[in-house]
Amino acid sequence: DAGVTQSPTHLIKTRGQQVTLRCSPKSGHDTVSWYQQALGQGPQFIFQYYEEEERQRGNFPDRFSGHQFPNYSSELNVNALLLGDSALYLCASSLEGNSGNTIYFGEGSWLTVV
Amino acid sequence: GNSVTQMEGPVTLSEEAFLTINCTYTATGYPSLFWYVQYPGEGLQLLLKATKADDKGSNKGFEATYRKETTSFHLEKGSVQVSDSAVYFCALREYGNKLVFGAGTILRVKS
Predict the structure, then answer these.
(1) Are the C-beta atoms of residues B48 and B61 closer than 8 Å to each other?
(2) Residue B41 and residue B30: Cα distance in Å, rounded?
């Protein structure tokens, strides 16, 4: 059983460009959340998708957007990249409706903005 | 809002030493609590969890007890190994499976 998979693993973008990161949740999981982890800090919640809709959102600007597909996979899009967007982006998956379940994380996508 | 505070690192220990990493939280109600570990260059792995007061989570020799009186969830291990060197994150779960993390504590174990 594959866990949470993310792509790409590493990427370098230039300021002002746009980036798309992808996530496939653990088999059977229907909820996908995205987190940003800046160097030396804890992960910060960006948003969460369930039933193809954004259900919760953290304190991130509208440049950050996402999508969830019918197969539960998800994309994170960041427009007009800033140097400060350089971070590890983590995808987490879980099963809705079960407060005792485990939230699983992928290995992350390392984004460097130059 | 809810928050998690961890002791600052880095924590540097010799192999076989006793480990404690302090974690306290501020939250409405009694959220589930977690410790995640991040090895160099990797994502987050769940280390242990506790879902209600007085629960003790344990895994790989690590333990943490959910203390509602002191709103704490300190991580302990009786004898650390070099392979335990990593960053440890304390977290609480809010409604809807959203996690709130502490800033992380770097652990370095010397042989």
Answers:
(1) no
(2) 33
Q: Could you give the CA distance from residue A72 to residue A4 in angstroms, rounded to a whole number? A: 11
Distance from CA of B17 to the nearest CA of A (A): 25
| Of residues B2, B7, B8, the one with CA closest to residue B92 | B2
CA distance A109 to A29: 20
Note the pLDDT tens digit of each residue in B15-35.
Answer: 999 999 999 999 988 899 999
Cα–Cα–Cα angle for B98, B99, B103, rounded to 5 degrees: 150
Is the per-residue pLDDT at A1 higher than 70?
Answer: no
Contacts of A100 in chain B (CB under 8 A): 32, 51
Q: What is the pLDDT of residues A47-105, one digit of tens each?
A: 999 999 999 999 999 999 999 999 999 999 999 999 999 999 999 999 876 566 789 99
Q: For residue A25, is the peptide bond before it cis, meaning its omega torsion is within 30 degrees of 0?
A: no
Task: Please tell me the distance from the alpha carbon of residue B90 to that of residue B71, in angstroms, as a whole number.
Answer: 13
The whole-angstrom separation of Cα A108 and Cα A110 is: 6
The strand pair at A109-113 and A10-13 is best described as parallel
The pairing of strands B105-110 and B11-14 is parallel
Paired with A23 in beta bridges are A6, A74
Q: Are B74 and B64 in contact (CB under 8 A)?
A: yes
Interface probe with A: pick from B97, B99, B106, most Cβ of A within 10 Å: B97
